[in-house]
């Protein structure tokens, strides 16, 4: 085995068609995103010797790799929900650094919205009733209800208000307004969020992510291939992953997410601190996820998330810590497991390719450091990646 000496960079990123895509299959979106990411990097497909994917087919990622015409010698099918892609990126970076692969492609595609419209599937109320879940499903623990219970616990213990949670949605929409690829761009207010139909107390409709179609791809490569790329490298500086629980009854504290562990590990391994970060891309299937993850990553103290998000801090325009700069899952797109979209947006920000929503470093110029943190299940898993430019 080779010693871990090679640095690893993200050299290509792309989205497929996103939003309302009625005439595509998940495989089509995988292929579209993969081709675009390879073109973005300027590397030949023959160089790709690693592949990672999840969420499609019976033998993912075997079926997707076959569809793409890839025959990888390194493969990953880790599936831990929305944080899958941050965890996969960590695994891929380790493999490349150790010499087990040279270039690894991460790809995802989903027609979650189109499938529901066509009657091919229904909404995801739960993940089944087998195993440990059998003890909770009879009590009505839908997926949304699990997150809602956690949010309510935070409100009780720390005084977090509905208005503060609503601010997360309002600021995500403000960022989406700057993103031409976002599905919803019209401004919303706190009152709009609070007056919407109740989905699961305390969440109204606008506290919840949208449902869209879409795909994404990210290409990682060893440092010796960077000079052959057409884009500037974005380096993977540190990663962390953590699994917390499956049953809510085994979750020690509803106000602490697994990002408290994955974030600490990622920052320690990167050798940087949260206050040095220029922006954050955080999984936001629900407004509470953004708020509690900001706390657990160390951007504010435990119980201070409500106050932290109140004063426009998350906005691209004028925010102290721009968060979910593309509009996030609350406004931009959310085709199932959205974690790969977070990595794409972070890389675009660090390369200065984000257009009107481009973040600037505190001292001016392009951002230097960004953090991506994905969450899976119902705060069951977390993966955090610290990325750097130059």
Describe the structure.
- With 390 residues, the protein is α/β, with parallel strands linked by helices.
- The protein has helices spanning 26-41, 62-68, 84-97, 112-117, 143-158, 162-176, 190-194, 259-270, 287-296, 305-310, 328-331, 339-350; strands at residues 8-15, 50-52, 74-76, 103-110, 198-200, 203-204, 214-222, 234-243, 279-282, 369-376, 381-389.
- The strands form two sheets. It has a nine-stranded mixed sheet with strand order 3-2-4-7-1-8-11-10-9, with helices on both faces. A two-stranded antiparallel ribbon has the order 5-6.
- Strand 2 (50-52), helix 2 (62-68) and strand 3 (74-76) form a beta-alpha-beta unit.
- Helix 6 (162-176) packs across helix 9.
Provide key terms for this protein.
nine-stranded mixed beta sheet; globular; 12 helices; 390 residues
SSE topology sketch:
Layout: E1 8-15, H1 26-41, E2 50-52, H2 62-68, E3 74-76, H3 84-97, E4 103-110, H4 112-117, H5 143-158, H6 162-176, H7 190-194, E5 198-200, E6 203-204, E7 214-222, E8 234-243, H8 259-270, E9 279-282, H9 287-296, H10 305-310, H11 328-331, H12 339-350, E10 369-376, E11 381-389
Parallel strand pairs: 2-3, 2-4, 9-10
Antiparallel strand pairs: 1-7, 1-8, 4-7, 5-6, 8-11, 10-11
Helix pairs in contact: 6-9
Short summary of the structure?
With 390 residues, this protein is of the alpha/beta class. The chain is built from twelve helices and eleven strands.
